[in-house]
Design brief:
Helix content is 7%, strand content 35%. Strands 1-2-3-6-5-4 form a six-stranded antiparallel β-barrel. It has a single domain (26-127), classed as Thrombin, subunit H. By secondary structure, the chain is mainly beta. The termini are far apart.
């Protein structure tokens, strides 16, 4: 006896149910414009540093604009640190208010000669299970 099995393929047609890239983010990004510093060791082990401007932050990542061209390859571990004068801002993620944060470079956007600066996307190496619970100030006033 010869049986024929049919295989059906499901074609996704409902675009409303697909997640958008904004919905895939673990935490909210905040646009900011504050000075910071990167330090790392190059391939020869020489300590390097660069001044950067932070463009946006989240609990797990930072996007920075370099004030001068730097040679940092993808996946290099760097120390990211906001300048001390701006660390007390309660709008910043807790990990950034504490000082240096070990980070990995996961995207490098090269600068251009027409004036666009080099940018780096950094993944903060913070324990995702250790979330700092912050109570909004409005709730503190009613407690």
């Amino acid at each position: 006896m010869n049986t024929v099995s049919t295989v059906s393929k499901h074609i996704w047609t409902d675009k409303a149910l697909r997640p958008t890239p904004a919905e895939q983010r673990v935490s909210i990004r905040k646009d900011i414009n504050v000075p910071a510093r990167l330090t790392w060791k190059d391939q020869r082990g020489v300590q390097r540093f660069a001044s950067v401007v932070t463009r946006n932050v989240s609990e797990h990542g930072v996007y920075v604009e370099c004030q001068s061209a730097v040679s940092i390859p993808m996946f290099r571990l760097v120390q990211f640190q906001l300048e001390p004068a701006v660390r007390d801002d309660r709008n910043l993620p807790a990990a950034l208010r504490n000082g240096r944060v070990l980070s990995a470079v996961y995207r490098v956007s090269p600068g251009t000669t027409s004036g666009r600066p080099q940018c780096l996307a950094l993944r903060l190496m913070v324990d995702p299970r250790r979330r700092v619970t912050e109570i909004p100030e409005a709730e503190l006033a009613t407690a």
